[in-house]
Amino acid sequence: MKEHTLKKEEMFLSKYATKSKDTEGRLREETPCPMRTDFQRDRDRIIHCKAFRRLKNKTQVFFSPEGDHYRTRLTHTLNVSQVARGIARTLNLNEDLTEAIALGHDLGHTPFGHSGERILNKLNPNGFKHNEQSGRVVDVLENDGRGLNLTREVVDGIINHKINSKPKTLEGKAVSLADRIAYINHDIDDAIDGGFITLSDLPKDAVELLGETSSRRINSMLSSIFRKSYGRNTVEMEKEYADATMELRTFLFENVYGDDTFRNEEARADRMISALYEYYQQNKDKLPEFYIGRLECDNLDTVLCDYISGMSDMYAVKTFSEIFIPKNWKL
To answer: Which of 81, 127, 206, 296 is positioned for an S-S bond with 244, CB 3.0–4.6 A?
Structure first.
């Protein structure tokens, strides 16, 4: 089965695609799987890891949403995977590598979305970036401190998925672009459903070019990527479509992410995360055993970011309540 997959890659993938046989390998040598390619193996390891499961209770846009239909960090990740695989399929890139990167790209994301990231970046003297933390999750923290030992191509794509980064592979570039496409369109949907904006508020020129619904816009963006990138050593949209996409992104930052509702919730998250950070700075012996053990290898600020960024929204609130909220006294 594995040999069949490798032959298919040689026959059908673009000359610019990353073939499984050409992987740079892992940090630690392993006996190859007889059934799966290395990139398929990486995808499976990510899906089964604890950090991936915690994404279901981490914020995408709305803090701890009670409605069943709002996106979470997990559903966002699945959306990115679907869009990224669509790009890879149309450009004849390696879908297995693309999927592995997409599924792992946000493993290091904080509770309370980008608000949590900004708060930890402020608290840690060395700063904090969720993409770098995702790399740390797969290289160091998962599997009881042994990491997932993923291929270098997957780790590179995970670390370099942000908008201004430069992944080494076209598959990594596909995920970076898919991340942008997914969160722009689906955050618009959630903001409309949440009553923060209406369809008529969106930039008219961008909507006229890309479409009125998220599905039409995504289709327009993917079609533009195909026209611009097929048979070339690149993954990008045509300029007109890229500009319209960025216009929607700017609109979100100005009219949704910057809304007073989100600012107020971020202020509350700031107080909570800051209190947890300070408490564990002064009481490091109260950290879970695994993180106390990490202090032998890393400084306290790094370990605090490891612990707090790994929390789900609900676990962060629960931990804060247990430490700082008085409990009813009973005989």
So the answer is: 206
And the tokens for 180? Answer: 């942008």
Contacts of 211 (CB under 8 A, 6+ apart): 217, 219, 220
Phi/psi at 72 (5° precision): -115, 180
pLDDT at 320 over 70: yes
Angle formed by the axes of helices 152-159 and 170-193, nearest 10°: 40
Q: What is the b/e burial string over 147-179, where b = at least 16 CB atoms within 10 angstroms of the residue's CB?
A: bbbbbebbbbbbbbbeeeeebebbbbbbbbbbb
Instruction: Write out pLDDT tens, residues 198-210.
Output: 999 999 999 999 9
Q: How far apart are CA 183 and CA 294, in angstroms?
A: 33
Reported as a single tens digit per residue, the pLDDT across 95-104 is 999 999 999 9
Size (the chain), residues:
331
User: What is the structure's pLDDT at 66?
Assistant: 61
Q: Is the pTM of this model over 0.70?
A: yes
d(CA 135, CA 159): 6
Task: Give the dihedral sign, CA 278/282/285/290.
Answer: positive
Chain centroid to CA 194: 22
